[in-house]
């Protein structure tokens, strides 16, 4: 031990004591604290304690008052969920008079004051039907809708005031089957609640992957040469037989057919919502070493946040030119149901906040995060015992909550200029009431971020909250503003005292710190 160590400890003790005195006086006077001071008290880290005194060492983040060029206001219902048909009742329960209240609260949390948009479809779209005496069950159909299914789903939609996008079976190649299914869904859930009917699910795969197995034989729904022109003919044939209602499509799962989107929209004026599916990583088909391989490093990479959306602005603009919405109505971290030890970790929460903002910047009008029971990327898992529901809430859900807090309906993205490293992403929004929200995401696994944030206008006071976990790979211990969901949660609400800090800005801005693999939300009411 060097002779200077005791002196350093005495100096540090003096700094902490001085800060403690300031804190005590501040608490008595009701004045806000700099977050750097709070961190110094808790960690005793000299660099943090000195951050306010050495602004030259701080990363600079400047939020401007200019909206991001070409961006659109964040639409009500932007953040929604996507369920499989066969998974809905595992979530709602079987009694339409007692729908799972924990599920309902978890959905409401993500769309406060809004009508949430639920999409029901996914792979089960093309294995589901509405039984009718005039039709034989196709070989690839394994799930039958029933009046009981309609009753519980209708109750869920009614309780939430939700709008729904509903898939109907295209792969069976029977328009009459699709018509019976669509009519049952529209009548059973009430037409006013149906935002659109989505015909089929990822039709570009119909000639590539078998629909079902018959003994030792793999049965394909379409011939191997099934092309986009064939799909448009199928879509048009089905559309003519469906009830008059807005349609969604083409429900593609990759960019292969998307260059033909203009031709699709010209042929199908009944389509009001262009739907597309996107996963940044792939557990099944990505070759080792590729950017799409399901690894922690790749999930926190620029590709997983923005690179996988490279072509989206062009297609979103094309949809808007046709007067249609563009919605990514199926999205999550890793295709093929996710990957254990990755999709269920805190890294997914950091990823999803960034990816959602990237989608706003790309011109997307809404996103439905896909979840179903047993998936590695499921957002929650429910249990019912002695008539009471409870849920285990996964880390990714916390990221959705942070986005919802930072992106209220009709808010606009603001331009941000910064000197942050590539591992740090910053997003800012301005809400209709003038409040400015700044999200900072530190994806570095090892480096702490010290930053000064300058807000637009004459903002002098802001609140600061963090989203943290023990590590990026942590599956437990996630907190948002110091709060957590009980494990299990019987309410669907965060528990514990709220840990937000009141910051007083200096001439340079607001001084903030973030630990490795964490995110934060800085919110200020602009006076300018």
Commentary on this structure:
The chain is an alpha/beta fold and 528 residues long. The protein contains 14 helices and 26 strands. The chain has helices at 4-29, 35-43, 46-49, 88-92, 101-110, 147-160, 175-189, 228-241, 261-267, 296-299, 302-305, 312-321, 346-362, 395-406, and strands at residues 59-67, 79-84, 117-121, 128-129, 143-144, 163-168, 194-199, 212-214, 217-219, 247-252, 271-278, 281-282, 325-331, 334-335, 366-370, 380-385, 388-393, 412-418, 424-430, 435-442, 449-454, 461-468, 479-480, 501-504, 510-514, 518-525. Helix 7 links the parallel strand 6 (163-168) and strand 7. The chain is globular and about 75 Å long.
What is the fold's blueprint, element by element?
Layout: H1 4-29, H2 35-43, H3 46-49, E1 59-67, E2 79-84, H4 88-92, H5 101-110, E3 117-121, E4 128-129, E5 143-144, H6 147-160, E6 163-168, H7 175-189, E7 194-199, E8 212-214, E9 217-219, H8 228-241, E10 247-252, H9 261-267, E11 271-278, E12 281-282, H10 296-299, H11 302-305, H12 312-321, E13 325-331, E14 334-335, H13 346-362, E15 366-370, E16 380-385, E17 388-393, H14 395-406, E18 412-418, E19 424-430, E20 435-442, E21 449-454, E22 461-468, E23 479-480, E24 501-504, E25 510-514, E26 518-525
Parallel strand pairs: 1-21, 2-3, 2-15, 3-6, 4-5, 6-7, 7-10, 10-11, 11-13, 12-14, 13-15
Antiparallel strand pairs: 1-18, 8-9, 16-17, 18-19, 19-20, 20-26, 21-25, 22-23, 22-24, 22-26
Helix pairs in contact: 6-7, 7-8, 13-14
